[in-house]
Amino acid sequence: MTEELKQKSLKDKLWRLICSMKVGIILLIIVAGLSIIGSLIPQNAEESLYFREYGDAFARLILATGMDNVFETWWYLLFGGLLSLNLLACSINRFPGIYRSVFNPKKKMTEKGIKNLKNSKEITISSGHEDAFDKVKDVLQKEGYKTETPGNGIFASKGRFGYFGSFITHISFLVIVLGFMYGNMTGFDSHIGGVPGDTVSMDYADFDLRIDDFRIDYRDDYSVNQYYSDLTVVENDEETSSETIYVNRPLRQDGLSFYQSSYGWQGSLKIEDEESFFLDTIDIIEGRHYHYRFENLTVHFEAFYPDFAYDQDGHPVNRSPHPNNPRFIWYLLDEHGEVVDMIISEKGETYEYDGIEFAFTDYDQYTVLRVVRDPSVPIFFFGSVLMMLGLALSFLFFPRRIWALVEPVETGKSKLIIGGQSFKSKAKFEEDFNELITEIDENTSSKPK
Asked: What pLDDT, on the 0 to 100 scale, is given for residue 360?
């Protein structure tokens, strides 16, 4: 074997590998698995979150392997790129054959070729050649076939665009995969929040967002019916638009979408010394803490109970979401992180420790908004349309071909050799083919041979 032939053989093997469906399925499973990891593990979060949520060993593994930013790692882009290459190569490899099947099919077939088809029949027609030829053609056209007459034969086909079904579906997968990768590389998903009256500035936006109001619509059993946030877009100190958003109805501005995500309570903490000398004030939301560095003390705001009560076992409970009997539940921790005390205090009630007085003086509900920039949405939409088109062509259009030869055998009689094939729904085609033979028989007064 010459060097040139060896190189050609190597290229052919490499091309077959790239076009392999098995390779494509393996790559699809890998990319799907990595995407699931990226969906389950918080992305681009602070390192402390991973140590707090997953423990020391797994947190180090997450940070070392890049699982905290899966969609921008070299290995995710590598497998995504290989999957895209496989889909593109498969499509390129199949297109010439599909094109020929649709626009340049084999229209002539010998008598032997027709008889070798799985579905074929030879019958004698009690009509002259021209009359028999026209009658067979008329029956095929009546059944929805497009007919052509190459030589003394008939070529009939229908549903030919169904050949494009799997090809377009492959292309749609390619578009969706590329869109997913592009969206994860260029888009982002973040959160902002605040209480009514707050104006939020964002590094990634040329405008500010003012939270005018936040309210919750409750059912009779106090379960949440809907959350509402009244928002105003402020550009260069001017109000440009206002909108009320709720779940599944976001505010869209300059490529950003603001979704109603969640809510909670915020408490205002005031710190004074024994002589009522003001030391500090801070707003804390539930589940967060504030470290007062001058005394090495930490306040952890555990929860806010708007309608506080004790159950029969002496445990704190909330009777309703309305602030009928509000209480703040919080912990005070010393410089070693040890809990000094757990406090349940009313609004304005002070707690004294080592000459320092702590008091929650006010409360308010805050809203959390999810901020999404996803430039892949139009790509996904286009890919989805392509997929629907591909599936429609695959399941609604069944390509069928029929070849027929009409030959004179004696005066007033002709011989019909007819056969057909379909690469989809073969059992149904066989049934329809037999019905077609019966209809030809009835229309030509023929006798099966």
From this structure: 96
Contacts of 447 (CB under 8 A, 6+ apart): 123, 124, 126, 441
Q: pLDDT tens, 368-377?
A: 999 998 888 8
Question: In the chain, what are the helix, strand and coil shares in percent, each to the nearest 5?
Answer: 40, 35, 25
Long-range pairs for 199-204 at CB < 8 Å and ≥24 separation? Answer: 199/234, 202/371, 204/256, 204/373
Model pLDDT, residue 449: 46
Long-range contacts of range 313-317, CB-CB < 8 Å, 24 or more positions apart? 316/344
DSSP 42: P
Pick from 198, 161, 194: nearest CA to 365: 194
Residue 173 pLDDT: 87
Q: Per-residue pLDDT tens for 179-218?
A: 888 887 788 888 899 999 999 999 889 999 999 999 999 9
Which residues are within 8 A (CB) of 192 and not within 5 positions of it... i.e. 6 or more apart?
A: 200, 202, 209, 368, 369, 371
Tokens of 131: 């009359």
pTM of the model: 0.65
**Residue 193 neighbours by CB distance under 10 Å:** 20
Low-confidence ranges of the chain (pLDDT < 50): 1, 446-449
Neighbours of 259 (CB within 10 A): 19
Element at 17 (helix H, strand E): helix 3-18
Query: Could you give the CA distance from residue 98 to residue 165 in angstroms, rounded to a whole number?
Result: 10
Contacts of 194 (CB under 8 A, 6+ apart): 200, 211, 366, 367
For residue 237, report the phi and psi dihedrals to the nearest 5 degrees: 65, 15
Q: In the prediction, which pLDDT does 45 show?
A: 73
- pLDDT at res. 445: 59
Q: Residue 34: CB partners within 8 Å, gap ≥ 6? A: 70, 75, 76, 79
